[in-house]
Amino acid sequence: MKTFITVLLALCLIAPATHAASKPCLAISGAKVWTGHNFKVMTVVLTGDKITDVGSKVSVTGCRMLNAKGRFLTPGLIDVATHLGLVEIRLEPSSGTPNYTRHDSTRALRASFDVADAYNPRSVIIPVTRLEGVTSVITLPTGGIIAGQGAWVNLAGSSQAEAVKKRQLVMVASIRGKERSRAFNLHTIKAQLLEAASFQRDQTKWLKHQTRPYRKTAQLKALIPVIEGKVPLMVSANRASDIEALLRLMKGTKVKLIIAGGAEAWMVARQLAAAKVPVILNPMVNGPGSFDQIHGRLDNAARLEKDGVKVLISTFSVHGIRALRQCAGNAVRSGLSYAGALNGITRLAADTFGMKGYGIIEAGAQANLVLWTGEPLEISSSPVSIWIEGRGQPMKSRQTELRDRYKSLKVQTP
Amino acid sequence: MITRSALIIASLLLTHCGTTGLTRKKASRVYNPIKILKAREVRANRAIEKIRVTAGPLVILENATIMTATGQNEFIGYIVLDKGRIKALAKGAAGPLPGAKRYDLKGKFITPGIIDTHSHLGVYPAPHAKAHSDGNEMTGPTTPGVWAEHGFWPQDPNLEFAVAGGVTTIQALPGSANLIGGRGVTLHMVRRRGSRAMRFPGAPTTLKMACGENPKRVYGKKGRAPGTRMGNVRGHRKAFIKAQNYVQKLKRLGPRTPRDPGLETLAGVLLGTVLSQVHCYRADDILAFLQVADEFDFKIRAFHHGLEAYKVRDILAKKNISVSTWADWWGYKLEMFDGIPENAALLHDAGGKPVIHSDSSLGIQRLNQEAAKAFYAGQRAGIKVTRQDALRWITINAAWTLGIDHEVGTLEPGKRADIVVWSRDPFSVYAKAEWVFVDGFVRYARAKKGKPESDFMLGQEVAK
């Protein structure tokens, strides 16, 4: 009986694999695979859009084989605070803008704006970014006090339907910026959340008595998942006292606060750790660039890590997302642990936003992977192969096309 | 045959001389405009802030991997610094040298001090503030009479961070809002109370000019000229027509020529004493500006940014014009749309002089990484380029751009002892500058913790 059960269990375990094997699969062998802690030589099997097996002794029967020859394999890199696909040329608003309030600064509240609808999967910036090993980003609106909702996109696919993996992923707010004063901004965020709570408690009454335009209702509806803690609230703040104020504001609520920018976050590291609030930062930002970051330091990430704060690394960019791993490398240069840096652009990035299966190399995870010529954060390294949802990506961009066109100048002078 | 041509040329010359002879009869003499301009600015160039010059100490940096930026392969050896200059450098072990301070730099790398040809430190200092906006004289599109050094704040806290990144010399430039933005200033990264005393000794005057989107955007928006690329070129031509007339006046009237800060600067460009530094992105904008330079017969020393320089690299190489660019910054404006990471490597391959510049208070802290990015991008694309070549992009090519290549930019005996000691290969993302020497003195030591250099930062941490 016991044997029978064991056999049955074994069959159950094998069954999915056998099933998977019937679909075309790719086995990447002999790669130094990032486990989240270190690099370990293993084989990774991709079937369809998923990783189906990882280990040193896995069945690869029927799979196409790829000998990685000791190269490094990491999850596809993730930048959690970009405006990719929303802007093509920064100074040309006609090319797109992430700033929904751009033309009317009085409309500082745009909670209902869903950036996914504005995402352009054919942006030429996408292949340029992908060639540096970035396979997913969160793309965010800007402007106003509450700018709207960000989306998780994969850097592949030619339609919004293919590229956008999760919309309404995160609510974006800012207490910096040109919108009146920090006190006003802080108060407005608080008032909006309170109003949303009141709206949620008694919607019928609210709607019956509301005298304001419908737009307002849409704002409040969009904020309900935020006060319920289902959608995180990412607030741009650099000054230590601003972060402190935000922590106090959200204390006792279900709001899942995330600090973006956080130049002076190291000064309130213990409070951040106690409140379990993650910080998204660019480790190459230091110095008193503005009065909000007089105490910006290169070892910001290292100090936060030491005090137990979850650190995510971002370029906060569009055209510069390609420098993501340089950012992570610089964090290591300034004292962040290697695992902290690489996880800060993979595993932790996905985990913070509840994107299960991203940023990890495990059976069942998304097959978003990058095979590197060398240690992935080092400048001398570059991607050899990139997979998104199991599909090998073209190693081309508009920039490689330009390069190839001008490799010889002869063609320009017929 | 040869004699015949020579005769023709001689007779032509005679005719020409004859004409001059006639004028001479009328206006008596032709003055040397270069001498006049120089004499006029003697006091404008003299620093009131007197520096007591002490000779740098006797130092031996030994057992390090030395990258000289001369093109020579790196080697393990030593460098002797004495009286602010490089006294000797060689492979192998250094012998005894009484009185020398010795640094055992096993496993570490040595390069020349990094030179940033394009910085706005001091003129757009930190923290960003209205009162700190001293880099663009946006009251008119042509302002050759302003000097960056007069807007330079030596207390900019970012200067200290730049030094910590291995930077020993910068060119602080006016911004690019104007067609002719004003004089740049080449500064040695020494601590002084005013910019004048920071000026790199003997560095030529430079002039910042700009083409493309910025001037036409800034002034077009105000309903003023220039509002188009056409208007840009007209603006440049107008300015140089005036400058040409001014040079003629200088020759004719000599010291009696009325003074004019702008025309004196532009005359310097026409006479070849001022090095033009031209902000230009697109290949066709570069060519349009080259046309202007050709028409008025002046030399352009460097294009800055030049994201499309790779498209006209043959021309730039032939004309011996350097190009200061980034490793991979692009797309911010439409004129930045065609930037590629192989730009520097392609320029190098064509025999040109690429430079990696920062134009940023953050980028200036890691120009070694930026050069590395540009190098590896080129190498990956199969372009013939070496590490030693790429090091030149942030050292000697930059020095040449500023006209100080006889003083700094390579590690060679006799040059100023501006040196960076790196914790490891400077092309690694993990490399840090451990010591930075300027004129043989330790300007920065990573291990040494002290008060911030900038008065602005002093005491900021007291209010805990």
What does this structure look like?
The complex is a heterodimer of chains A (414) and B (464). Chain A has helices at residues 2-22, 125-130, 160-163, 182-201, 203-209, 214-227, 240-250, 269-274, 300-306, 324-333, 338-343, 347-352, 398-405, and strands at 25-34, 39-47, 50-55, 64-67, 72-75, 77-82, 134-139, 146-154, 164-174, 233-237, 257-261, 279-281, 311-313, 369-372, 383-388, 391-392. With 414 residues, chain A is α/β, with parallel strands linked by helices. In chain A, strand 12, helix 9 and strand 13 form a beta-alpha-beta unit. In chain A, helix 4 crosses helix 5 (203-209) and helix 4 packs across helix 6 (214-227). In chain B, the strands form two sheets. In chain B, strands 1, 2, 3, 4, 5, 14, 15 and 16 form an eight-stranded mixed beta sheet that branches. In chain B, strands 6-7-8-9-10-11-12-13 form an eight-stranded mixed beta sheet. Helix content of chain B is 30%, strand content 20%. Residues 6-24 of chain B have low confidence and may be disordered. In chain B, helix 10 packs across helix 11 (367-380). Classes of the chains: A alpha/beta (414), B alpha/beta (464). The A-B interface holds A 88-92, 125, 284-291, 293-295, 318-320, 322-323, 326, 329-330, 332-333, 377-380, 382, 399-400, 402-403, 406-407, 409, 412 and B 126-129, 157-158, 161, 213, 217, 310-311, 313-314, 328-334, 337-342, 346, 361-362, 365-366, 369, 372-373, 376, 380-381, 427-432, 456-457, 460-461.
